Every structure is written in C-alpha cells, then in structure tokens.
# Entry
Amino acid sequence: MRKIKIVQIITRSDNVGGAQIHLRDLCIELQRQGHEIVILIGGEGKFIHELRNYGIQVHIIKHLVREINLYRDIMAFIEIRIALRLIKPNLVATHSSKAGWLGRATARLLGIPVVFTAHGWAFTEGVPKVRRIIYSVAERLAGMLSTRIITVSEYDRRLCEKYSVIPASKLVTIQNGIPDMEVMPIRQGAQSSIRLIMVARMERPKKQLFLLEALAGIHHLDWELDLVGDGPQLAEIQKMIVKLGLEHKVRLLGERKDVSTLLSQSHVFILTSDWEGLPLSILEAMRAGLPVLASNVGGIPELVEEGVNGYLIQNGDVHHLRSRITDLIQDDATRSQLGLAGRVKFLKKFEIQSMIYKTMEVYKQTQDSLVR
# Structure
C-alpha cells in the first residue's frame, strides 16, 4: 500500500464531539497503516492531549477559532499556510466549517489537493432560515476550492444537490463508522428501574429540555434518566429538572470517558436533536445493543429503521416521544428485540474498517487527480 503524508485540519480542541471522535479514530487507524498524519487544530483544549496520548502529531493554530473574527481568521490563514509549507503534505483533509474554509483556501493556494468532510451542514433543515442562506452561500464558494467533499450521510449529499451548493461530481458519501468494543451489556434485573440515557452536548439543537418535558408526563413510571454531556444550557437544564420535580429521576453526569460502560448499563437510548448529520452517539448505542428513540432529522433515518431497531420521533412532537418512551419502559421483549436488531445492523454496516477503506480510497484518488 502506498504511504502518504496527510495533514488533517479541525477547528476546536475544547470540545470532543462527533467530528473530533471521527477524526481521532480515523487518524489512529491511518497511522497504524503507516501513513504520516499531522493534525492542525485551534486552541489548547483537552482533545490535543488525547491525540498526543495516541502518538498523533499535533500542531496548534493559535488564531483558529469557531467565531468569525476577521483579524484572527487572517492570522489563522497565515499560520496554516506556514505549517503546510513546512510539512509539505501530499494531501490536506479538513473538518468543521471554519477549518474547512481556511484549510481549503490555503491548500488551493499552495497547489495541494484537499478533501473536506462535512459532519452535517450548517445550512441543514431545522437551522434558522437566515443562517441557512448565509451558510449555503459560504459553502457554495468554499466548494469551489475543494477537490472532493465527503458527506457522512446520504441526507447531507442530497441536501447539497437540492440547494445546488456543490457539484454532484465532487460529492461522495462515506457513512460514519466506529470500532466495535467487547463491552457486554450489564442490564440490571427485572426489579430495577428502566435506565434511559442521552449522550449529547448541552446546547440548543440537542433539546434536553424537550426530553424532560416529555418525561415529566410519565414521572409515575419506573424510570431513571442519565444525561451525559456539558455545555451552555447546563444551568437551564438543572433549573428545569427542579421545576418539574425530577431531581430523584435524572442524573447529570457531565462529560465522561466511560460512555461505553454507561451505555452497557442502560436500557434505552434517546436523542432529541433539531438537526444532525450521522450521529456517532447513535452508532455507539447500536453497538451496545440499545433500542434508539431519535428525532426524524438529518441522517438519523439511515441508522434507525422505524420499528426495526428503534423509533423515529417527529421533531417537536412531545406526545409522540412520551408515548414511545412509555412503550419501551413497559415492554421488555420489544426493547430486547429492537436492541439486538441495532447491534446486528451496526456489525453489518457501521464498523470502522469500511469507513477507513473508503476514506483512504477517496484520499488516494484526490491526490492522483492532481498529479495527473
């Protein structure tokens, strides 16, 4: 196998979300295969230490931030340009909006082939209309700088075509994958409460408050909820738990490194987002053999088949969500059947090796297209 030098660029190191986990797992495997990997990243957050613990080279781009700031964006562009000229990669791969714009512009200027992976679009359905228009225009311009663009779901690829943002010839879908783990379910006995779990950053699109509203209507049933994650809505969520009288039902666990273990101790996984790409959290739940209740948005229907491995909830329908939660709390056999089907589907379609192989093929094709 031909070995190549790849620079990966991502904006944030302070938040370990789906894009960061995707990048980490991808780089670990590519490095294991003998490719040389360097990550350019903004900030000095905890994700940097995690990457370095895996032996991955990290170069900090001091001025790379999520927010639009003309001075810092220009300085970040200069920093990225200097780093790329020093490293001399065969390929640049970018992730997240800001890193995607600056990284693609810099690579194009230097004549380096560049791939952008879209972990969900900023102009997706559910995003406020003005933001959708602004970001679709921005991505249309940035798309001109891309050699290839990977979407992590068919939904995101079709969205590009619907709004004529990116030419179809540049697009390829490679669905997310994660490593399998031998974590056997530790479901508690029939006399214990049904443990519900949601793993998501506590910010507006994830809608933990909506879930709490649904659960308040069935507080008399025997359930407990673990909310895993942190974020700007934490204080508001804490107040809502008290207001609804759910203090003895809901645990706020913060960010955790033992999510796989928590999932193995749970009975039902829930994700109530307004918009999503192809959530790694649902893949983790499927890997753990959990039935999934999730909003019918983005690429989620590519993971969750109605009545097969979970249920899709119409976005904003609190009564529908409450009804489905009630069904799964009360029906042990259906929980087991849906969870097993999710585990089987994960093993067939979403283990990481398929994603790695397809991604590397796109990287090599992209490099070869410029060489020719």
